[in-house]
């Protein structure tokens, strides 16, 4: 009997790992298209020639062109992180107020929150380090190096705080899973969180193959700051007051898995097939 229960728990954990990987990829792809399209949408308004390809939004109008006014810089370059932040914040709010969620939607919201906040705040940190993207906005505003450094430090601290919040929302659900064991929490976090993050990172990094772009790789690396608090969260008496019921995978969840897998394959094919969405001026 105990052996059968152990086998069942491992089977449930494997299902959760698959769901986490697929929802991580699917939510990242959604964020990729929505955030980059938001930037292209405003590029059209300012007569900036741009397109969306496998590397995201690409602006063909030189930065020295008169069309790149101050308003154009701030609107177009900040559209992507703002869209990402909106999606991430919406996911956190849904995690807070929706008590009953299927496991598919639970992990989808967790990963959308992680990718969304990282695509907003993490992007500011990355661009400040490499002097690209939104860094042009800082230059247009005549921010000194000390101001950019302070923004970078505060942004990193904000990532940690949001990571703690998301990890608490995750923890009050995850501890109710039948396969959850406090002594195995580290290994379970590796398989349900780090493995999906690695899968998405390798997928995105593959966009640049055979070229090596450490700048692009670093953009996903900052997401680790959001994931790290998951490994250090401890039991707290208050957790018992806000515990949410864990919903085991149902037949519909397996149908959703098939749908997510199919859609993810389609978008992955588009990304690697040198797709291009042009914005005509």
Which labels suit this protein?
single chain, 281 residues, 10 helices, globular
Describe, in plain words, how this protein is organized in 3D:
This protein has 281 residues and is mainly alpha-helical. The chain is 70% helix and 4% strand. The protein has 10 helices and 3 strands. A 3-stranded antiparallel sheet has the order 2-1-3, with helices on one face. Helix 1 packs across helix 3.
Question: Can you lay out the helices and strands and say which pair or pack?
Answer:
Layout: H1 2-45, E1 50-53, E2 56-59, H2 70-97, H3 103-130, H4 135-140, H5 145-174, H6 185-205, H7 214-221, H8 223-227, H9 229-232, H10 251-272, E3 277-279
Antiparallel strand pairs: 1-2, 1-3
Helix pairs in contact: 1-2, 1-3, 1-6, 1-10, 2-3, 3-5, 3-7, 6-7
What shape does the CA trace take?
Answer: globular
The largest pleated sheet is described as: 3 strands, antiparallel
Distance between the termini: 68 Å
| Strand arrangement in the largest pleated sheet | 2-1-3
Helix content: 55-70%
Classify the secondary structure makeup into a structural class. mainly alpha
Low-confidence sequence ranges: none
The total count of strands amounts to: 3
Query: What is the radius of gyration?
Result: 20 Å
**What sequence of helices (H) and strands (E) makes up the elements?**
HEEHHHHHHHHHE
Q: Work out the helix count.
A: 10
How large a portion of the residues is in β-strands, by DSSP E? Answer: under 5%
Q: What is the overall pLDDT average? A: 77
